[in-house]
Amino acid sequence: MLGDLIGEENAQITVQRVVRSDHGLPPLVESAFQGTGQLLGVPVNDVGTYTGRLRPDGTLAGEGQGILMSPSGAHASWQGGGVGRFTEDGGTAWRGTIVYTSDSPEFAGLRGIAGAFEWDVGADGKAVGRIWAWK
């Protein structure tokens, strides 16, 4: 069951590149981003990278990873995966799941849960994300 909204973030894609694939698969598009927001009420800076691969049905398969840090030095790492689709404005909309690892007391509430996320990325690389606890 989806629980409470636990995080929100605004981010900007900083770099994108196309990575060649082997075995006849479509190439990957790798995107790096930086963002700021809050997670469990804690202000965070987020740095991450994700890849997307076009699937035969026109959707995207994606996975990513990153690191969060609060102004006080609390930190967490994350890994996620999901499905994306192209939007009419030339951006992408991603939906999926994310899990966190942290030994910082500020992020103790992330232990034992998965997050369900929505990330909407505009053609200009500006992104907005929301994460709900999935208990």
UniProtKB/TrEMBL annotation:
Official protein name in the record: DUF3224 domain-containing protein
Organism of derivation: Kitasatospora paranensis
